[in-house]
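Schema walk-through. Below, the input block comes first and the output block second. Nothing else is stored per chain. Lengths vary across the set, and this one has 246 residues.
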Amino acid sequence: MAVLELINISKHFGAIQAVNDVSFSLEAGQVVGLMGDNGAGKSTLVKMIAGNFRPSHGTMRLDSADLVLHRPKEARQHGIEIVHQDLALCNNLTAAANVFLGRELRRGVWPLRILDHKSMYKRAGEIFRELKSETRARDLVKQMSGGQRQAVAIGRTMLSEAKIVLMDEPTAAISVRQVAEVLNLIRQLRDRGIVVVLISHRMPDVFSVADRVIVMRRGRKVADKQIAASSPEEVTGLITGAIEQV
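--- output ---
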């Protein structure tokens, strides 16, 4: 059963048609690669799912119920989380503080409620162990590798029992070893039944971890195929326009 359905979704900004009549569904426990050249409409599409933009036309359905989002906070309340390319982490804070940023645990009675650091360290540590990450709750983010930073960003999504995690270029500008760590984190999310939408220009990463690949070109969906039924050469052709549509 589909967790999220997009039905004839379009988005225009004045005369500019950023996304044009796109339909697909996302199923639980599935990694979907979303690929396309710059300007293909990937980011606009993901921002509609994340509540940043409202579609100009079309319908979104979450668990078979119509979904209308006015802001990102509403998307998070529905279990839709996004991990931005810049990760939006606070370098001067610990991993645990970043995981709980804006959702801090407190103890005591108002007005003397104070931050419950012990509980936040404990829960953050549990999340990192669930993700099989070497990230430690008490470490400062500024001292971490790219892979560990991704674990912190992904850890935030697990606080809210996310159904869908949208990841924007998670393996950009990190080492080969760290790429392997991030791809393993994505597999951990998939194994927990979470839908992962992986926006990436890195063909090997998508073909390593994704179950499906959706290709966009000039605002339109030109392919939606199982990874096993496609190839990097075909996807490259679809992205560049050498292959029109499949």
